[in-house]
Amino acid sequence: MSSPEQARASQLRNIEAKTGQDLATIRAAVAVSGKAKHGEVRTWLMETYRLGYGDANTLAHFTSGTMGAAQPGEGGADPLDEIYTGKKAHLRPIHDAVMAAITSWGEFEVAPKKGYVALRRKKQFATLGPKTADRAEMGLNLKDDVASGRIVAQKPGGMCQYAVALTSPDDIDAELLAVIRRAWDAAG
Questions:
Q1: Taking the alpha carbons of 121, 174, 164, 100 in that order, is the dihedral positive or negative?
Q2: Domain DUF5655: where (predicted)?
Q3: Which is nearest to 63 in space by CA: 6, 15, 24, 114?
Q4: Distance (Å, whole) CA 15 – CA 23
Q5: What value does the mean pLDDT take over residues 13-38?
Q6: What is the distance between the alpha carbons of residues 86 and 105, in angstroms, rounded to a whole number?
Q7: Where exactly are the structural domains of the chain?
Q8: Do 62 and 71 form a contact (C-beta atoms < 8 A)?
Q9: Is the pLDDT of residue 60 over 50?
Q10: Strands (E), the chain
Q11: In this predicted model, what pLDDT tens digit does every residue of 78-104 receive, in sequence order?
């Protein structure tokens, strides 16, 4: 996917395919569900349509009108500007360096979340976003062992099996790119 709008549109199309319902029908069902708060709507969508958290969350935003219809080519604010704002704005070059390095590998989806982006092929292979005001973090989904002092194994059951702290675009070196590529290959 080449833009956040296209990624969101793709996610919404996939939700329609999973549920067998169009977005207008789902929006109407949410309206009559009696659920008003975002978390209530998200939970209701997860239970009613058997959606995962991410799909239900995106759909809750869509049905509440806090995101547009998300058709490819629609304009809108860059979600990265919201993720990398204020004290975290100086971390954006790290994000840009990662994306520049992996874009040549082929197609993948970039799904903006509240504080990071999820990177997906058939499955999610990584997350990327600011962790603190001083560093970004890349989470990696990789079942293999990673022999690296800076790529740290995460607790079981988390979103990613490994994480690496990034404080500069220079941290995006051949060693890290090789591990990201392994996760990319495994996703799809």
A1: negative
A2: 81-185
A3: 24
A4: 9
A5: 88
A6: 31
A7: 4-64, 79-186
A8: no
A9: yes
A10: 109-112, 117-120, 124-130, 136-140, 151-153, 162-166
A11: 788 889 889 999 999 999 999 988 888
Alpha-carbon Rg for the chain, nearest whole angstrom, is 17
Measure the CA–CA gap between 80 and 16, rounded to whole angstroms: 26
- What sign does the dihedral 115-158-44-72 (CA atoms) show? positive
Tokens representing residue 83 in the block: 């993720």
Residue entry with tokens 């109407």: 28
The neighbouring-strand residues paired with 129 are 137
148-184: per-residue pLDDT in tens?
A: 788 998 888 888 999 999 999 999 999 999 999 999 9
Cβ neighbours for 25, distance < 8 A, ≥ 6 positions apart: none
24: left (phi over 0), alpha (psi -120 to 50) or beta: alpha
pLDDT of residue 72: 35
Residue 20: left (phi > 0), alpha (psi -120 to 50), or beta? left
Cα–Cα nearest to 61, from 20, 18, 17, 112: 112
At residue 3, the pLDDT reads 66
